Amino acid sequence: MPATDYLLRNGHVIDPANAVDSVADVRISGGKIDAAGSGLTGTGAEVIDCAGLFVAPGLVDLHAHLRSPGFEYKETIATGTAAAAAGGFTTVLCMPNTSPPLDNPEIIRELRNEIERSATVHVAPIGCISRGRKGLAPVDYDALAAAGVAGFSDDGDSTIENQVMLMALKASIRLDLPVMAHCEDPVLIGGAMHQGDVSERIGVRGIPAEAEESFLERDIQLAEESGGWLYALHVSTARGADMIRQAKKRGVHVTGEVMPHHLLMTDRWVAGERILENVDEPAGAPVDAPDPMAKVNPPLRTPADTHGLLAAVRDGTFDVIATDHAPHALNEKQGIPIEQAAFGMNGFEVALPLILSLVRAGHLTLSEMIRLMSWNPARLLNLPGGNLSPGSPADIVVFDTERAWTVDPATMHTKSPNTPLAGMTLHGKPVMTMVGGEIRYSA
After folding, report:
1. What pLDDT, on a 0 to 100 scale, did the predictor assign at position 43?
2. Is this model's pTM higher than 0.70 or not?
């Protein structure tokens, strides 16, 4: 059956790849962008009025957990990609901390078959850096690349052996695929939140910033030595951001990634104080402390760290804003001591409104937001979408920057709606997500 042709009329088009930031039409034919401009016509096309809305390339998330294989009780390819589409994402990369881990071509092929059967949006798997994600022995990087991985990571843990990390970085040169490093010294972990004044006040064992920064320093040094491509995952400290800034100045091939929750939330959320940093937005009602829903790895840090991370977004140190969408069953997050709770919060359906709050505060423009959440990630990893150029896949998000909505776990599309934002009112929401010219979400 031929794809429906569409004419998205009178939306404010944001397409940083083509320096477009104006009211225009977008014509879609055969699942691809046919044209973008003013006064377009489309014989036989279904016309969708986008007046008052913004039209942009679909968001691209380079860091998410879809939990398949092995943890489908938390999330499935179907539920995770439905949540991604509801959040405006048209392409997501899934991390390999699964059971079994994604460390050989057969598992990658099986997962890709499941993606083909069940996914609502484009999904590309990330392969392991080390066998079993144990950090001790390398995988066959060439075989995983041939099977279709988009990068290599031991996310959830650091790659312990320096030589394994060095081998992966050297492989990144010939394969042009990033080594996506979770930076955390296993000797310094064991806590449930950031180590500092708040952890001392509420009596929860903390994780020092040095746990992240020491391994980030090691991985930058290895990247500098090898010339390989280091992708620093979920950087959470101002010092870590500056380490990447200085490495880039020295010519190290390093890509920096930051998450919405580290830009806007602090360790005070674990203490039940629901206040967004860097923006003038209403606070949420306090909750009982400590709050396991705010337990994430790396942990929410200090206000000074959120300010330093935002400065690194604004000066170009960070290339990508990703979600680290991390679904967990509610019995892993609720009704248990925070020390026993799982690390992580879901991110697909709240990422856009959270970053839009930074736009409203004047820290970013809409074009800069789309560059960080769509064009940059697609371009860096040679993924579908990220632009509205003629001939490109019609992967599109249409969103309302002002629509107010309350975060309600019962109505979220993810299978595991574990979020500390429950009950809070956010502003900004996708109203349509299109993948390959097909509408995959509408509200």
Report:
1. 86
2. yes
